[in-house]
């Protein structure tokens, strides 16, 4: 049992409130995942200045990044360090650091512990932007560590959050490794993220990538997948993992529970529905 929240803003006047709203949503699913939490934020000018590649890292700090890469700015957010540079430069200067997200206008923050406390440690309420995704984790198949927290971001500007479990992930991981895909954790959700990223790299759009995932993966899952211009939701064929979508002219939101949607402005006028089994829903910027 994990908690998923996501918010895709259509109304630019709401962008200064992205972090505030995402924090409120995350706070409503703490009980679903008390072990750890993470968020992906699109469009915050401090974390990810326009036109700059940004790398989110574990296993280092602002001080270490700025000492190893003179002229590079960095920020600490709990276990995560966000650096305004590229992954190749980090790999050369700080080989012990682990990349957990990279792209333009995009940052990933992860940590372990109470999700509400982590949101405060991230400074999430002060973040702005046009899209955000969050997750609270209850670990079932891998260790409680920042590396196992969601979102899993393994392609530029891409991330995946997952509630449920994949039954055949070990088989698919072996197949992807045979194709040269490398993995950072033992988490089944990372396999889903690597599969989607692999399909996107081959030219599939998010809808096709998630349709192929439904064909290939066994198990129970609700997935929220975001990219630098899209926001997509899919559930497995049985759809036993909870999910609700709310949509207005100003925003689209998804959450594991209604109470996480109830904090949003204009929720009383929203169209609210439960995603159908194996139907892929995609909203684009």
Describe the 3D structure.
The chain is an alpha+beta fold. The chain contains 7 helices and 15 strands. A 7-stranded antiparallel sheet has the order 7-2-8-1-13-12-14, with helices on one face. Strands 4-5-3-6 form a 4-stranded antiparallel sheet, covered by helices on one side. Strand 10 and strand 11 form a beta hairpin. It is globular, with a radius of gyration of 17 Å. It starts with a strand and ends with a strand.
Anisotropy-based shape: globular
Low-pLDDT stretches: none
Average pLDDT number: 95
Number of strands: 15
Terminal CA distance: 30 Å
Largest sheet, spatial ordering of strands:
7-2-8-1-13-12-14
Order of helices and strands: EHEEHEEHEEHEEHHHEEEEEE
Q: Could you give a short account of the major beta sheet?
A: 7 strands, antiparallel
User: Rg from C-alpha positions?
Assistant: 17 Å
Derived from helix and strand composition plus strand pairing, the structural class reads alpha+beta
Helix content: 10-25%
Indicate the proportion of strand residues: 25-35%
Question: How many separate helices?
Answer: 7
